[in-house]
Amino acid sequence: MPRSQRNDNSIDRTFTILADILLQLIPTTDGEKEAFTHYRDGMSAQSEGEYAEASQNYYKAMRLEIDPYDRSYILYNIGLIHTSNGEHTKALEYYFQALERNPFLPQALNNMAVICHYRGEQAIQQGEPESSEAWFDQAAEYWKQAIAPSPSNYIEAQNWLKITRRSKE
User: Fold this and answer.
1) Which parts of the chain are TPR repeats (predicted)?
2) 67-76 burial by CB neighbour count: b if 16+ within 10 A, else e?
3) Which residues of 98-137 are buried (b: 16+ CB within 10 A; e: fewer)?
């Protein structure tokens, strides 16, 4: 049984019913409808920490979805799963792919910056100050790009950029 048919709370059931009605009303192909169903099931599984199930649904959605914009969100969510699993290199690959299809995903840039910042912190702990600076510089670039379209977001990143004097570079 698809995850969307086994929702446990009324909000999820309501969302599922509304999404199903919209899918029937909006002129889309059967493939697009199936892709959306897999995407929705992936989001549901991901929100419950069921990353393997979420990944399977996202990969199924990727095989069916043809719209680059919609594909960008699927790729972004796959990146989130890899980030949650500590697979940062894979996560970065998926965030890059998402941005190739949709350059207006500041959340992907933010997550890329967080990974780079984390790697900078790791480099410090390993006694590699030059490497850490390179990672921090890369984090700064991603955060600047994430902040540019929405200056009221990512306040902590903005503070970090100011404190480390990377905000104007």
Assistant:
1) 35-68, 72-105, 72-105, 120-153
2) eeebbbbbbb
3) bbebbeebbbbbbbbbbbbbebbeebeeeeeeeebeebbe
Q: Read off the amino acid at residue 56.
A: Q
CA distance 107 to 92: 12
The values of phi and psi at residue 25, to 5°, are -85, -35
* Residue given tokens 């680059």 in the structure block: 68
The answer to whether residues 84 and 58 touch, using CB atoms and an 8 Å cutoff, is no
For 93, phi then psi, to 5°, come to: -60, -45
Per-residue pLDDT tens digits for 53-86? 999 999 999 999 999 999 999 999 999 999 999 9
How is residue 55 written in tokens?
């990944």
Query: What CA–CA distances, in Å, run from 131 to 122, 123, 136?
Result: 10, 6, 9
